[in-house]
Amino acid sequence: MAVILVVDDDVDVARLLEHVLSASGHTVDVAGDGGAGLRAARASHHDLVILDWMMPVKNGLDVCTELRADAGFADTKIVMLTARANEADVERAMAAGADEYLTKPFSPRVLRARIEELVA
Q1: What does the alpha-carbon distance between residue 82 and residue 90 come to, in Å, rounded to a whole number?
Q2: Residue 87: CB atoms within 10 Å
Q3: Distance (Å, rounded) from C-alpha 61 to C-alpha 70?
Q4: Based on the number of CB atoms within 10 Å of its own CB, is 102 exposed (0-12), middle (13-18) or buried (19 or more)?
Q5: What are the residues whose beta carbons fall under 8 Å from the beta carbon of 84, sequence distance 6 or more?
Q6: How far is CA 84 from CA 87, 92, 109, 118, in A?
Q7: Angle at the Cα of 73 (from 43 to 94), degrees rounded to 5?
Q8: Confidence of residue 38 (pLDDT cuts 50, 70, 90)
Q9: Which end of the chain is less congested by CB atoms within 10 angstroms, N or C?
Q10: pTM above 0.90, yes or no
């Protein structure tokens, strides 16, 4: 199973993600803003990082860009999970290095399936 970092400032969403992913056997760490998420990612190895886009301190797109600029995160999968649903946002996230883009509200079943594909 994978070690996953969830970075989301919405406590309810973070708890839901933690519950869904840990119930699937994954180890889940949670950070409540982009700055804390970046520090957590650098402090401990994670197989996958789930990023909200709109967060305080650093937004998810900035965190994604910074992680991808660091060779130490070349194998880390990044999933953007955000309410931003327009095509231009998806393109920006993928150009920044995201491996997957899911929109809120999300289906826990679909999220689990996408995560399993990425960490297989």
Answers
A1: 10
A2: 7
A3: 15
A4: middle
A5: 53, 54, 103
A6: 9, 11, 20, 21
A7: 125
A8: very high
A9: C
A10: yes
Q: Exposed (0-12), middle (13-18) or buried (19+): which is 50, by Cβ within 10 Å?
A: buried
Q: What percent of the chain has pLDDT over 70?
A: 100
Where do we find the tokens 């995560």? Answer: 115
| 8-state DSSP, 70 | S
Q: What is the dihedral of CA 51, 56, 61, 65, to 10 degrees?
A: -100
The residue among 78, 84, 76, 11 whose CA lies nearest residue 44 is 76
Q: Name, in order, each residue with C-beta under 8 angstroms of 115's C-beta and a sequence gap of 6 or more.
A: 2, 4, 21, 24, 26, 48, 79
Task: Quick: pLDDT tens for 54-100.
Answer: 999 999 999 999 999 999 999 999 999 999 999 999 999 999 999 99
